[in-house]
Design a protein that fits this description.
It contains seven helices and twelve strands. By secondary structure, the protein is an alpha+beta fold.
Length: about 290
């Protein structure tokens, strides 16, 4: 059973939260945020928060600018690096039109629609993204150019530099959001890393990926580093990727819909159709802007 508005109001009071960040993304996956003081939270929970959609990449024209955010109460969490006198929590939101309809251009809403279609077909869709990232040194004036990787280590190398502590701080911050990490290690290129979190139903996994990016950037900045998920931030060294494990599970039985031990490669007909569909739409998926 999900959280209720009363649950959120009680948590805010008990935890001494002073502000709440309402997160959503534009069509390119860039995280946007509107902050409200805790005194405005009851109204937010009752009827959402209005904002100008025409100012968001790919959302609306000026004449269609009015939109509002409805928070997903189950995403409430205190932001671990904003836990001082101005303690701040966050909730991830869905975007709605003035007519009370889900906005068709909201990436989270689009995923929810697809998951509803999958549910009608009897499936639950699970994903497990693995995000690679770089940590670069910042100069005393805050500039990141020219790019300077913070270390000279390589794949799975054991090191005693700053990143060892930074990665652990990142994991602790992710844990505060309820994100379960499974492994953390240095990647192939100098200054490149990976922290893997556990797979989940696709909407939770997508929320975790959004939270992951914000969290790692914040923790890096607190340590005087710049974190980037750009696919190719520097020439002559490996780029970063985000490959995603995917699976369908039968809702009625909880069994893996992709597995059939009697067929070649152990794949079911459903798995083969799934792969064929992704190959058919590969060009469109590749055209999506990487959310760095």
């Amino acid at each position: 059973m999900g959280k209720s508005p009363d649950d959120i109001l009680k948590a805010v009071k008990d935890e001494g939260v002073k502000f709440v960040n309402l997160w959503f993304t534009d069509i390119a996956g860039i995280v946007k945020s509107i902050t409200i003081p805790e005194s405005e939270l009851p109204e937010c929970l009752d009827h959402g928060v209005w904002f100008d959609g025409s100012s968001i990449e790919g959302f609306a024209r000026i004449a269609e600018s009015d939109m509002y955010l409805v928070p997903d109460l189950d995403t409430y969490a205190v932001i671990p690096w904003d836990a001082g006198d101005e303690k701040t929590a966050r909730m991830i939101c869905n975007v709605y039109t003035p007519q009370g309809e889900p906005f068709i251009g909201d990436p989270r809403g689009a995923l929810k629609r697809v998951l509803d279609e999958a549910a009608e077909m009897g499936f639950t869709f699970f994903t497990g993204p693995e995000l690679e990232f770089f940590l670069f040194k910042a100069s005393p004036d805050g500039a990141t150019l020219p790019l300077q990787p913070h270390d000279h280590a390589g794949y799975f190398d054991v090191s005693t530099d700053l990143a060892l502590s930074v990665r652990r701080q990142m994991v602790n911050a992710l844990r505060a959001f309820g994100i379960r990490t499974e492994a953390l290690h240095h990647e192939v290129a100098t200054g490149q890393h990976e922290i893997d979190f556990r797979y989940a139903e696709a909407i939770t996994s997508a929320d975790n990926a959004v939270t992951y990016r914000i969290t790692l950037k914040a923790i890096a900045q607190m340590n005087g580093l710049h974190c980037t998920f750009m696919p190719k931030p520097a020439p002559f060294i490996n780029g970063s990727g985000m490959h995603t494990h995917q699976s369908l599970v039968h809702k009625s039985t909880g069994k893996n819909a992709f597995r059939n031990g009697e067929n070649e490669y152990g794949l079911s007909d459903i798995a083969l159709h799934f792969v064929a569909g992704q190959l058919t739409h590969a060009k469109a998926m590749a055209a999506v802007v990487a959310p760095w």
